[in-house]
Write a structure and sequence with these properties.
Layout (H helix, E strand, L loop, with lengths): L2 H11 L8 H8 L22 E4 L9 H16 L3 E4 L13 H12 L22 H13 L3 E4 L3 H13 L15 H9 L5 E4 L8 E3 L3 E3 L11 E3 L7 H11 L4 E5 L6 H11 L5 E5 L2 E3 L14 H6 L4 H10 L13 H7 L10 E3 L4 H14 L1 H19 L11 H11 L25 H7 L3 H15 L5 H13 L6 H13 L7 H8 L1 H17 L1
Parallel strand pairs: 1-2, 8-9, 10-11
Antiparallel strand pairs: 3-4, 4-7, 5-6
Helix pairs in contact: 3-11, 3-12, 11-13, 14-15, 17-18, 17-21, 18-20
The chain binds glutamic acid.
The site of glutamic acid has 7 residues, from loops.
Length: 541
């Protein structure tokens, strides 16, 4: 039997799985069951041993949608199977670190409602969670690899490597290291080390890579040694490269499943070779398909607008962001909109993740936001927070213009929110000029009134009488009926003009919510105030 077939046989007998039932099998093999989540249970109270996943960004930039999605699938996977979600910051490329990015990544995960269980900030039993604080582990492992003959010191100068690259390019080949230092004798190595010659450590890539079963992409195997030279695992500055640090940490942090972007799929064979060289059991791998723009183009990190902080600044709700990034992808039993994290967890079905790229239509974000805002408004506790938030925004936007402090009252703001839910996508909209009438009295002139109808005096009186009759109890249904019959009474003014006049008196505008809704929002006292003014302007007109 060929080594490849032998590997497949061993894998199938052992812990790898057949596509389609991969994840169920993964979970079964580990004796784990999906946790049943109620809509209120958010975290795991009983963490079953076994599932440990991680999100391992490099703080070389701020968190963007692609990263959020990887973190989210890991979070959901952990919560579904009663596991632990780890945040590890891979900060070994010190030259590319962006100040503030590390803190911001963790802030954003918390803001999004998918906080890690173990992280640089929260700590945990298998920390530290910042690679720059784990350097001893990497050098110890690199040394272990050298001692067992799986890695070697390389003294090639940057000039020599540059030359190799140039020659390869000239010959139309892909540049690769020629593994020269692999063949140095022990005494040559010792001599160079004793002389303090600058060096790196390279891992010996061997042929005969074993296949592995990716949870999403199925069987995979990249004969890396045929396309690459031996990779550097320790740099001359004593820092590890990504490949070494990543597997060392996944091993020592007891990561059971590596769920990461599909761009890492081709590196996995290399990682598995390293696991085997160290005598370690590799984790189960699952590579998530790429997240792309709806036209199939790359979701560029350079467009400032895909950073989570900009969504946050623009008033996007975290739930809406999570919903839209999973809605376009796969791995769920349904694709309905409006799912909150608990529902995402209970509807998650890893065997449904496909290999197709996920096409994200960000133009639909306001729609998602609208649905989630509605759900927030309907939740009494959250609504209380929303009223506080909106109150602040009203004060910031209109402070000096507010004539009636009643508009800052929680009950008033709540009433507005309940009337506008399902129509608005963010709280911010409510402080736009379109809704200014809710917080400040409109200004309009007698000329504007006269331009609508000559019967404004009569109409204003009818409204005032109606409001007096209705007392404090204004409902949309009743008011709509009342307004219809009221509009029949002026002889020379059509229904449309009557409504235009009412709208002008209530808001100073010609568009906006229905007149009945405006009235219910404002309440009887304020309606009376505004129609008294109309009455005065009608006299003088
Ligand atoms: N630091 C890598 C990244 O930023 C992690 C890749 C992985 O998850 O293994 O993408």
């Amino acid at each position: 039997m060929s080594p490849w077939l032998e590997c497949c046989r061993r894998s199938l007998q052992g812990r790898l799985f057949v596509r389609g039932s991969v994840c169920d099998a993964a979970v079964r093999t580990r004796g784990l069951q999906p946790r049943t989540l109620t809509s209120t249970s958010r975290c795991c109270s009983t963490v079953q041993p076994g599932v440990r996943v991680r999100f391992a960004p490099s703080p070389t930039g701020f968190l963007h949608l692609g990263g959020l999605r990887t973190a989210l699938y890991n979070y959901i996977f952990a919560k579904k199977y009663g596991g632990v979600f780890v945040l590890r910051l891979e900060d070994t490329d010190q030259s590319r670190l962006v100040p503030g990015a590390a803190e911001s990544i963790e802030d954003m995960l918390e803001w999004a409602g998918i906080p890690p269980d173990e992280s640089p900030r929260r700590g945990g039993p298998l920390g530290p969670y910042l690679q720059s604080q784990r350097l001893h582990l990497y050098s110890q492992t690199a040394k272990q690899l050298v001692e067992s003959g799986h890695a070697y010191y390389c003294f090639c100068s940057p000039q020599r490597l540059g030359l190799l690259k140039k020659e390869a390019l000239r010959a139309g080949q892909t540049p690769r290291y020629d593994n020269r230092c692999r063949h140095l004798r022990a005494d040559q190595v010792q001599e160079k080390l004793a002389q303090g010659t600058s060096h790196v450590i390279r891992f010996c890539l061997e042929e005969g890579v074993e296949p592995f079963q990716d949870m999403i992409f199925g069987w995979n195997r990249h004969e890396v040694a045929q396309v690459e030279g031996d990779p550097v695992v320790m740099k001359a500055d004593g820092f590890p490269t990504y490949h070494l640090a990543n597997i060392v940490d996944d091993h020592y942090m007891k990561i059971s499943h590596v769920l990461r972007g599909s761009e890492w799929l081709i590196s996995t064979s290399k990682h598995i070779l390293m696991y085997r060289a160290l005598g370690w059991q590799p984790p189960t791998f699952g590579h998530l398909p790429l997240l792309m723009n709806k036209d199939g183009s790359k979701l560029s990190k350079r467009q400032g607008d895909i950073f989570i902080q900009s969504f946050q600044r623009d008033g996007a709700l975290p739930e809406a962001l999570l919903d839209i990034t999973t809605n376009c992808g796969s791995g769920f039993n349904t694709s309905r909109m409006g799912r909150r994290i608990d529902e995402l967890i209970s509807e998650f079905n890893p065997s449904k993740i496909t290999t197709h790229s996920a096409l994200l239509d960000l133009e639909r974000l306001p729609e998602f936001n609208r649905i989630h805002l509605l759900q927030h408004i309907e939740d009494e506790q959250v609504c209380h927070l929303l009223t506080k938030d909106l109150q602040e925004q009203i004060l910031q936007t209109y402070s000096a213009e507010i004539q009636d402090k009643e508009v800052l009252h929680e009950d008033y703001i709540k009433r507005v929110l309940h009337l506008r839910k399902g129509h608005i996508s963010s709280l911010k909209e409510l402080v736009n000029p379109t809704y200014a009438y809710l917080w400040v009295r409109p200004s309009f002139s007698s000329q504007q009134v006269a331009a609508v109808t000559a019967e404004s005096h009569l109409i204003a009186s009818l409204v005032l009488k109606l409001i007096e009759e209705r007392g404090e109890e204004l409902t949309m249904d009743q008011l709509s009926k009342d307004l219809k019959s009221l509009a029949k009474q002026p002889k020379a003014t059509k229904y449309r003009e009557v409504m235009k006049l009412l709208r002008l008196a209530l808001s100073g505008l010609q568009q906006g919510p229905s007149v009945a809704e405006m009235m219910v929002s404002l309440g009887p006292a304020e309606i009376q105030h505004r129609f008294q003014k109309l009455l005065q302007l009608s006299h003088s007109g």
